[in-house]
Every structure is written in C-alpha cells, then in structure tokens.
C-alpha cells in the first residue's frame, strides 16, 4: 500500500506543482471537451467507409466494445496519476512505475501516433481550406497552423477553452447534417440492417485508434488537480460523447447512401446527397475535428517531451519555443514532401503502439497501488480491475497489433510479387535456367 495516508493528501496535493509541469485549473466540461476533441479527428470521417463491407451494426458493436475497454484503460491511467505526487505525462509515469523500457515504449508510441496524426492534419487542413476558399494547399495549412500552434504555445488552459468551444461547434454541425439526413428523400433506415458479420474483423483496426485519448489523461489530471474526483467523471462523459459522435456520423452517412455507395470521406457523401451547402458544413466539421485533435495530441506530445527529458519548467520561453518547433515543424514539412511511405510507417508504428497503451497502464496501476505517494479520493472499482477484464483488454489489443503486423506483411508481399510480375513482363528480370 502507499505510504501516504488520506490525512496527508491535502499537503501532498499542494506539492504536485513541483517539477517542470505546472498546474492550470480546468473545469469539468473543459476536461470533457479535451477528450472529445482529441478523439474526434480525421478518423471519424473514414469510419463509414471502413465499415462498407461489414455494415453499420458490426461497426456499432466495435464502437461499444472498444469504447468501454479504452475507457477502462484511461481510468487505470487516471488512478495512477492521482496516486503520484508530481505531475507526469505517460512516459514519466511509466518511468516511475515500470522502468526505463516501459517509459521508452510509451514515449515512442506517443511520438509515432502524434507525428503521424499531425502530418495528416497539416495536409488535410490545407486541402479542406482549398475546397472552402480556393486558397493553395500550403497556404491553407499555414493558416490552420497559426491558431493550432498558437494555442499549444499558450498552454493547457487555452487548449481546454479552445477544445470546449470548438467541440460545441462540432456537435452543432453534426446535428445540422444528421437532421438534414433524416428528412432527405434518399435516406432509408433499411440500409442500416445490411450486415456482413464475417467482415467485422478489419473494422477493429480503425475503431481502436479512433479512441486515442489515453494520451490526454495526465494533462486533464493536471488541470483537475484541484478537484481530483472530477477526473473519472470527465473521462466517462467524454468517452460517451465520443461514442455518440462516432456512431452518429456512421448512422447518418450509411442511412443516407447505403454501404455500397459510401465515399472514402464522409464529407463527400453528405455533399453528394444533400447538396453543396452540406459539403461546406461537413468540411467545416472536418476542419474543427482536425483542430481539436491537433491540440489534444500535439499538447500531449509537447508535455511528454518536457517530462521525458527532464527539461525543467515548461514556462521557460526558450525551451518552450524549441520543443514547440520540434512538435510542429516536422509534420508540416513531411506533409508537403510527399513522403507517403514514411507517413505510413508512422501510422503502422502508431497502430502497434496501441497495444502498449493497453498493457502498460495495467502494469502502472498495479505498481502505483504498491508504491504510490497518495491514497486518492477516487479509485477504480474492483470490477474494472478484475482479472477477466484485464485479460480481455490484453488479448483484444494484442490481437489488434498482430492484425496490423499481418496486414503490413501481406501488403508488402503482394507489392513485391506484383513488382516481380511486372519486371518479368517487361523482360527486365529473366529467371536463371540450368547451368
């Protein structure tokens, strides 16, 4: 058990601000908005297309199952954070409780997921702004980067407020599109009943990584250090809101077009069936989603660098500027150097990193309950920390990582075989005959 009793918790809480990461108070709804904003990125627009072979109900099943399991792992991180005197990010918590290897695995996972996502947001924002205003892609990305990077520089409180207001705008835009879909002549609820359960496995790949807010839990814990009981509430409410938004987008697009006519990006489907105005509204929603997710993942990446390399106070202007440049500049350059293979490698690393985010929190929580500094006011209940639940989490996320690896190897083998066939047809490669 922890060596600090509940009677000492108030004194310990006052010491939390020691170290490099400072405390800026958040409200409950700012914490909720940070979770929703981080989760709802560009991936929400790809979910309907990803489920085109399986249908809506297999997708809905995974959204429920993965949503519950991800929420549980986030609550593990929450209790671990509340049991620790100093403010840490995931890599710092891992270093404290599972050692250097665990810390590096978490940090690499954060880097891969965040960098891959920020590359997508830089490129995607440029294309969206080009479609909305006719501005060249690179100029559009720069215009997107100004508020995105500016809010990151200001810090945690600005991120919380920005996430809250833009998340509210996202909800309003989705309501507009969903209501319009409901009254459209093309909408047919029977489209939702089309299901091919044998194709449900590939959907898990995207759904697992549409719930990506594990990274943001220590940030929210830092902002709610003055009211730690609100942390678990913010996580649960935020994940429920995420589920509602993800399922609503899929429900709307599939009921409008049917699984055979869903476009690769949901905004295209809305525009094709509802009209040009819907395309504009959908693109604004996508832009908001990219902005909030940029703040969530970028902010987590930023503070993880400070925490991992013990850079001291994050209020130091010089260090803050350098770290911000490390976070923001490479994704912009990579987005416009057409390094597709590098981006795909990052996506793969992020996918495999998902299993790290599932398993390491289990180990951290177990260690924190033995050697943590504080007995917190809120703790995970026995049900979600039971052996069966932990076993399901480990097995499911490990399966997801193995599936990603298998898919990569299969695609690589198919590409190699295709190149060999092409070279043979061109008489570039002639198989050797006998001696």
TrEMBL record:
Q: What is the membrane topology listed in the Swiss-Prot or TrEMBL record?
A: Multi-pass membrane protein
User: Entry's Pfam families?
Assistant: Trp_Tyr_perm
Which InterPro entries would you find in this protein's record? Answer: Amino_acid_transport_2 (IPR018227)
Q: Where in the cell is it found?
A: Cell inner membrane
| Taxonomic superkingdom | Bacteria
> So where does this one cross the membrane?
26-50, 56-77, 97-123, 135-156, 165-183, 195-213, 234-257, 277-297, 317-336, 348-367, 387-405
Looking up Gene3D superfamilies in the UniProt record yields: Amino acid/polyamine transporter I (1.20.1740.10)
Major location, coarse class? membrane
* Keyword line: Cell inner membrane, Cell membrane, Membrane, Transmembrane, Transmembrane helix, Transport
Instruction: Kindly indicate whether the keyword Transmembrane helix belongs to this entry.
Output: yes
- The name of this protein is Amino acid permease
Lineage at the top is:
Bacteria, Pseudomonadati, Pseudomonadota, Gammaproteobacteria, Cardiobacteriales
